Amino acid sequence: MFKSFFQPEAAKRVAMAAGQVVPDSSRCVQCGICSYNCPIGIDVRRHAWENEPVSNSRCLTCGECVARCPRGVLRFERTNLFGDGGK
Amino acid sequence: MTRYVILGTGVAAIAAAESIRRVDATSPIAFISEDPHGYYSRPGLAYMLTGEVDEKQLFSYRPDDFKKLNAHFYRAEVTRILPGEKIIEATPNLRIPYDRLLVAVGAQAVRLKATGCQLAGVVKLDHMEDARSILAQAKHSRAAVVVGGGITALELAEGLSARHVKVHLLIRNERYWPNVLDEAESHIIETRLAEDGIQIHFQSELAEILGKNGKVAGVRLESGAQIRCDMVAYAIGVAPRIQLAKDSGIACERGVLTNEKMETNLPDIFAAGDIAQVFDPQTGRATIDSLWTPAREQGRIAGANMAGGVETYIKAVPFNVTRLGGLTTTIIGSVGTGRESDMVGIARGDSETWRQIPDAIITQSGFEVNRLRLMIGEKHILGAIVMGDQKLSSPLETIIREKVDILPIRARLLEKNAPLADILVHFWAGIAG
Ligand SMILES: Cc1cc2nc3c(=O)[nH]c(=O)nc-3n(C[C@H](O)[C@H](O)[C@H](O)COP(=O)(O)OP(=O)(O)OC[C@H]3O[C@@H](n4cnc5c(N)ncnc54)[C@H](O)[C@@H]3O)c2cc1C
Predict the structure, then answer these.
(1) Chain A nearest C-alpha distance from B332 (Å)
(2) Is the ipTM above a cut-off of 0.95?
(3) Chain B environment of A28 (Cβ under 8 Å)
(4) Which tens digits make up the pLDDT trace of A11-61?
(5) Strand ranges (DSSP E) for B265-410?
(6) Which of B32, B96, B126, B296 could disulfide-link to B109, CB 3.0 to 4.6 Å?
(7) Nearest of A86, A62, A63 to residue A74 by alpha carbon
């Protein structure tokens, strides 16, 4: 039911197995909260400006930027490592 | 060689210059702006107030970005555009010739006109200096009264509250933001604000600001009631800064009028961003947005066309994401009801289209603080509000923008207590393949 679609925590854990952070630049206002909170200093905001996934291999997919963004710009997307192409 | 001159250093201006540089690496680009801080995230000022980011974090452009633009920045106030001679005059003492000009001077907060509005302690949130001043004054303030409606008033209330200032929010209506939100949504926001210690005074109108020794000491309401405070923060709307353009013969209504190519009525003069009132061939109307993403996109198109391209701006479905009472909220398409007595002009982070709703049926569903409201037309979804969880807002934006035929699910959406989110997720999975 309705409830089942609002379990971001579970969704996050699955995505973290093999995923990358993907921005939706149309929602971004470049406030920089994402970059500010990245524990390893990736300029996530720059990816949002360019509308490109955070492809940096150092990215821990810790989810800090995704969780902190006040505008829902960032989401996890599973990469296609295992060929199951989860959306 | 083409001499490009860009007035302003906001997001529209920067996007235009990036666009020019994509096709023209060498021609000179000159920015002229009075803003001592240049380009930064203005929406981010709200998060600077709450302390979620540092001031310096709002500056997204790095030295190598500026190097790539290879532009000259003049800090000056533009006083005249001389379209005949193709010259810009600015103080102090500048005369700069142009071949192509972009007017991207934005909008600014409408000034409060009330007795006492000159007192120290009366503040607004328009640019960096305002934010700095609010933070400095908040340190010595115990209570503040916030006047106005819409998003910026809440940002002020939340920012001050985060700085341990007791906040009184004055609202003219019987509830928060009635022209865009429905009763339940207003109620959710109001409850969350109250939990943060923000006291809302409904149907309250400011009569005068009371002062002592040149400083704010309190306010008197129309009802006669008084509230003691050290600060008065207001957000009563924004107005495009059209005077400069108007005085130079550029056609204006509420904003600078442009066609879809972002051209004004005068040759080689373009406009983009909050200043622009852009013709939309789909509706035959020219509208203003005071939103970051349209400003960026208009700047991009203007820049491309200034450099000889032929691109047209296609007005997207109005779309804004914001945080209301700590809750991420996306407003897509037409959702409003058309009343706006808390606002002068159009609200910031607002779009005129939100209030031009065609006949539609409203259907809704809620789960704790996750809430979804759809405006359902004959064959399409016309608008939506998504509060809390944002998983559905991107699909909904596409469904609304692409005018996806919803006949297969329309009847089910309209059933009493329909599980809207479930229906939409399955529908989306079907069309997104
Ligand atoms: C507090 C706040 C919150 C906001 N929240 C949101 C939000 O949630 N979502 C959203 O989409 N948008 C939001 N906005 C709006 C968004 O910031 C604007 O739509 C966007 O910045 C417009 O960019 P622009 O380039 O058109 O103009 P601006 O950023 O206004 O830039 C114009 C520049 O021109 C300069 N200028 C003006 N006149 C002259 C002159 N005569 N001579 C020289 N220079 C001049 C100004 O100093 C300024 O630097 C918010 C804005 C503020 C202030």
Answers:
(1) 11
(2) no
(3) 293
(4) 444 445 567 899 999 999 999 999 999 999 999 999 999 999 998 888 988
(5) 269-271, 276-280, 285-287, 319-324, 327-333, 361-367, 370-376, 381-387
(6) B126
(7) A63
